[in-house]
Write a structure and sequence with these properties.
33% of the residues lie in helices and 31% in strands. It has 284 residues and is an alpha+beta fold. The protein has two domains: 131 residues, no CATH class; 95 residues, no CATH class. A hairpin with a 6-residue loop joins strand 12 and strand 13.
């Protein structure tokens, strides 16, 4: 469900998992001082062991606080939720805040991805998210300097809303950096066979390599005898630039049928180097 106001959000977040902190007990030893266990009440199973300084942040608490901050700033939004295991993700798109780059003939919807986990997979995470309207490719930029992540032991629930409000303002005021990154990536070219090696370096699993390079009309296979990965360029294109490689990756990540939310996050984290770093610095 797509939510557009706090009432709808609160209804949806009430369906998310709830966790609690319990004493960490080992058979024949008893309660272990200075440590606690995180228990997923909804799934009725333990998630992980944490220090007693750990502050458990509920998915609902985090997401509701964020939306209340958006309301305070009078920012229109659409928000949807995903869950996987002990993690929850909220994707927010801002209304009437599209970026238009006339020189590039590109337009992007701007937004933010929120992440929280009960098993220490991630802390409270806020990352800019863009969607290229020409092809609906999503771009999650967790390495963007205005991204924000804090471990739960440093998260004070009482001040969370004011902290969130500050981060929202920082992120939405720096969207213009995207045009510079794209311009730079358009000018950075590499021979097609080396482009394949770059994708291999960033995404070692051959299944995902196939999906990404297929968007460039390059076939990937593994030699049965040598086990070496081989590439067949069906496109006839001699060189590709970083923007083409990055778009091939984001297209696969966004539109791949079998991409789970957590795999999506991992692939975005690996391939966003194609937007930020020159191809020569990605060692193959």
């Amino acid at each position: 469900m797509i939510c557009e106001n706090i009432e709808q959000v609160e209804t949806e977040t009430s369906r998310l998992d709830i966790a609690s902190m319990k004493s960490f007990i080992i058979d024949d030893i008893g309660c272990i001082d200075n440590y606690k266990a995180i228990y997923n009440n909804t799934q009725e199973k333990y998630c992980c062991i944490v220090s007693e300084r750990y502050n458990l942040v509920q998915h609902k608490e985090f997401f509701d606080s964020f939306v209340r901050a958006l309301d305070k700033l009078n920012i229109g939004y659409e928000i949807s939720f995903m869950t996987k295991g002990n993690s929850a993700i909220a994707d927010i798109m801002f209304k009437d805040r599209n970026l238009k780059f006339e020189k590039l003939d590109e337009e992007f919807m701007t937004g933010i991805r929120l992440m929280n986990s009960f098993d220490r997979r991630s802390g409270i995470t806020i990352a800019p998210r863009f969607t290229r309207l020409a092809c609906s490719n999503g771009m999650l930029l967790s390495r963007f300097e205005k991204s924000f992540s804090v471990i739960h032991s440093s998260a004070d629930a009482k001040t969370m809303e004011s902290l969130i409000e500050k981060r929202i303002t920082q992120i939405i005021n720096h969207d213009i950096d995207l045009e510079k990154w794209i311009n730079e990536s358009l000018l950075d070219n590499i021979e097609w066979n080396n482009a394949c090696k770059v994708i291999n370096k960033l995404v070692p699993k051959i299944t995902h390599q196939k999906g990404i390079l297929k968007n460039l009309n390059i076939e990937v296979s593994r030699d049965k005898k040598t086990k070496q990965i081989e590439y067949d360029n069906k496109s006839g294109v001699v060189e590709f630039n970083r923007w083409q490689l990055y778009n091939a990756a984001t297209s696969y990540i966004t539109h791949g049928d079998t991409i789970t939310p957590l795999m999506e996050e991992l692939l975005h984290n690996n391939t966003q180097k194609l937007l930020f770093e020159k191809l020569q610095t990605i060692k193959v």
